Amino acid sequence: MAGVSPAESKSSQPARLPLQCLPCQPPLLLPRAALPVFQESLTGGRRRFSCLALRPFAVGVNQAFVQNNDDSVIEPLAAASSTLTAPSARADEIFLEGPRSRFHEFITLLRVMRDFLRGFRTLHFVGPCVTVFGSSRIKRDDPHYELARKMGAAIGRLGFTVMTGGGPGIMEAANRGAKEVGGRSVGCNIELASEQAANAYLDRCVRMHYFFVRKALLVKYSYAFVVMPGGAGTLDELFEPVTLIQTGKIKNFPIVIMGTDYWKELVGFIDKMAQRGTISASDLTLIYATDSVEEAIAHIRSKTIEPFGLKRIVHIRRHFPWLGERGLSG
Questions:
Q1: Is residue 29, in this structure, part of any structural domain at all?
Q2: Same domain, yes or no, for 285 and 304?
């Protein structure tokens, strides 16, 4: 199926690959052979680190000795092991729990960087997306599930890749709609204490450890956003692009709210904010509310394809598997 791509991008489409939701990577571990060198240096030995990558480890543990006034090597190594092997579902909790030792912060930085890198490599070739937000708790017999399914199909026919959080409910419905019409369907999932399994309608899926990384990726590759009924997470996802557009951090991409009966109090509250002057009257134009799939698609088409120079293409750019890049069929 032909897709759309920025005018300046020249690309080619490889054959469709099966769904592969990337598993959590193993924690970054210190090579076993390095431990004797590390311990010898702590006990006054003359050997020095020859690998630059190990220097932050030594600095972090030495810092722990200074702070704890402890001459043993057991406590710092145990603390390091705890940081490196913490469950991925606790990644956000660990990141947000306040200042930690320099070493622990460095390891967190590496884990955040790894999340971004895996996301970039997996999603780089999925093509221009429309992201659909909504609750994972919506059941298949709910009218909003069917609405999201129809919207996913319409987005796929328009030539965009449908991107969601990759989970059940509304996310599954949108991905399913895209797949049923031969469109492209991708997910950006999240590690949770209660496992959120990827739905069965994805061409490509990447699982993140950090919520803020996931939110950034859901915005990064999208030219429009469709917001279906949802809870606190959906509200967060809605106001993320609204704020970025309002502050000029991203371009004026269309945001469509569907399920107007569900959202009517929220739309009324946004009107109230404009009346009170806490947002500009022009900010009201950032959100388009409708229950019509045809109206939503017409709005997305008029605000994306021509303004951003998107065009239908047959081929996408070549990907390099040796860099961890993954192509996506169209």
A1: no
A2: yes
